[in-house]
Structure formats: C-alpha cells, structure tokens
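Incident log, structure service

09:12 report received: a user says their structure output differs between two submissions of the same chain.
09:20 pulled the input from the user's history:
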Amino acid sequence: MKPVFAHGTGAPGNEASLEPIIRKTFLWAADNCSWLRKDDLVLIKPALNSPDPYPATTHPLAVRAVAGLLLERGARVMIGDQSGIEHVLHHKNGIIRGSSRANYTCSGMGGLADPFVAFEDAGWDNGFFRYRSPRTASWKSGFFITKQVQEADHIVCLPRVSTHSQAGATLGLKCMVGLLREDSRMEFHANGPFNEFIKNAAKGSTLASRDDGSGKFLEKIVEISDAVKDKLRGTLFVATKLQATFGPDCSAMRMGPFRLGKAYVVSPDPGLVFAGSDPVAVEAFALAFLKHHKAGVPFLPAAAEKMLLSGNQNVSTLREVPVWYHPCIRHAVKIGLGRLPEQILWTDVPDSLQESLNNLLFPGTTE
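09:34 re-ran on a clean worker, output below:
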C-alpha cells in the first residue's frame, strides 16, 4: 500500500513555512529517497505549459525545494519541459517560435542559472524517440517522447492543480504531455475538443492534424505515463492556489492583447502540499481536491465557463462524474499505472476538509 501524504499549509498567504513542508512531504512520499545513489540523474518534470505564473504553472518553491533536497543528497538534477504549441512551436525543420527556457524564467519558476533543459533544443530527430508498448494501444504507432527520459535514472513530477478547457483537468497525468514531440501532441489533440485552436497555433509549420477516429483523447494522455512509470519516484503538488475554471493558462484564449476566458483562481483555506509514489493515488486525490473547490466557484465565473465550454464533455465530466469513475482514473488503473488511494496520511488538515475529500474519494469502486 502506497499512501498519499497531505500536509496543510495554513491560511492563504501564509507561505513562510512552505519550503520545509514541501521537503518533509516529498521525503515521506519518496521513501526518504532510499532509491537515490550518488551522481544519479534526476529529471524534475514541472508543469510549464506557458510563461504564465503559478497557479497556471508549477509553484516555484516546489521546484526549488525538491531540487535543493536532491542536490544535497548527491544527485545530479535536470529540470525539463517543453511548453504547449501556442507558446513553443517546433517541427522537423527546427524551432519556429518560442522558448521553454524563456517561459521557465518568465513564469517565475526559476532563474537562468538553474539546470533547466528545454526539450525542443535537442532537435527533432536527435532529441526524441518512439515509445510503444502493449499498454499504449490508443496510440496506434506509439508516440515520440524526449530522450531525457532514457538518460534520467529517476523522474519526479511536480504538477499544479488546475482545470483545463480541453481535458477538463490538468494534474499529474496531463503534466506528462510536456515530454512529447510536437507531432505526437498534434495526434492526441486531434481526438479532443477545440482542436481548431491547436491547428491554428501550428500554422506555419509542417505539423499535420489527423483525427484517427478513435476518440481516445483522454486515454492517449494517460498512456504517456507508461513510458516513465518504472523511473517515476514521486508526484508532489503544491496547492496554495488553484485554477477552478478554464486553464491550463491564465486565460483560455488570447487574441493579441485581449484574453477571453480568464481562469478563476481559488486560494484554499488551508492550502495543501500533497504527494505520493503511486501516480494514480495522487491523481485521484488531486482530482478530489479540485472538485471540492470547483463546487464553490461563484455563479458568474462558473456560468462563463459553462457558456464558453458548453460543447466539451470533459469539463462536465469533471463536475459530474465521481473520482473513482473518472475516465482518466479508470484507464490508468486498467493499464497498471497504479491504484486508487487506500490511505491518506494527514498533517495539519482540518477534520472538515478531511471528511469532504474522503467522501469524494472512498465511496465507490473501480467497476
């Protein structure tokens, strides 16, 4: 049994003790780093879809605290990602626009001196490899993923809690999309809602969007994690803020200086740092935490999201489907990525919040 560890951070704005809480929670979840040997290479995978600041991207302290802890214990650390197609456009002829490294600093996640790797910088052919297995059947020919996955000895995932205008939610499983090459991103987006926005963002490139008719948008997202599951040592969320409408960026659409569909940001009271070594258990907990706070979104921002995203079943699924029955959770369990949480170990979390999250997590079955 692999528990989820949840540590309260106190009232909103009280982040003075946040870094030690992150370090403590990560060590609990990662078995005190017993798997780490001197000079092992650890890939830290944050959520860096855009240059927008937290909570649209990972909390900077999550990156700093976990990277610092690993370095203290003798690891070599690499922080890596590739931002979304709207912000970084990369095809077989090179990089057309954008920079994940620039987004890393612009978001406030880290500085120029950090050991950050932008996956697009390694090149189209040299930087990526094709992955496929019996558990990635939704991808008919497999998918292309950064070679940094092969080079790393261990991987740590640092997502954020947010809704998503296409997928419904962006948590730990969705965070792994940043490992993909652009053609594979185009492939799974072609199965999803609002793909015209992705096609528009890819204009000027050689990238094609072909819907294979499988309808496996969410399944393809989940199956990316099969490529990292043997090296994934822990997933940790810092949730002192979360986006409870739209996402993954601060706004759903950008038209020059104008933004449409501004994400509604919640500051939970208390905030939570939570982590675990089972990615499915942590995903389910994050989904429950998001559902808990989404239920309290005021009428006007909730109505704006319903109006603009009315055609997206994934958004209504987040609101209406129980955690244990959510298609991402069900598929992740089915292909052996992990299990639903069986135990939550709470620290400084009010009984009322524990009760609410327990009610969201534990009343159903996986059938």
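09:41 both user submissions now match this output. Likely a transient worker issue. Closing.
09:42 reviewer note: Residues 88 and 330 are 31 Å apart (CA to CA). The radius of gyration is 19 Å.
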